[in-house]
Amino acid sequence: MFTLVMAIWAGQLQSAAQCQVPADSVLVKVGEYCTVSGKVVSVFQSNKSDTKPVHLNFEKPYPNQVFEVVIFAKDVQNFSKHPKELYEGKSVKVSGVIELYKNRPQIIVKDPRFIEVITTD
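Above: the chain's sequence. Below: its structure in token form.
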């Protein structure tokens, strides 16, 4: 079973390598598995829902972000530090399926292996 999971994960990473897009151009890739690159300019954890999601806002702060990564509170424990400490102010690459939520593009991340810091600007 572990081998199957790793094969699927490796396949996802390989397909992401085929689809790479800057954060301000993701709308044309909704529904696709891609690697998105950009700068995380602000990080916010919402307390308005049971899932208490952490939002990594790309290029512009909320509510004008061009793209966001969502990490639900239950998944924050998978990261070595709180995502705000790890990613705010840094250029990153994130891989996953690009979705629309309230007409805004996002990728939901559960595992830190899908986010890579490019620079620490």
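The beta strands are 20-22, 33-45, 54-58, 67-71, 91-97, 99-101, 104-108, 115-119.
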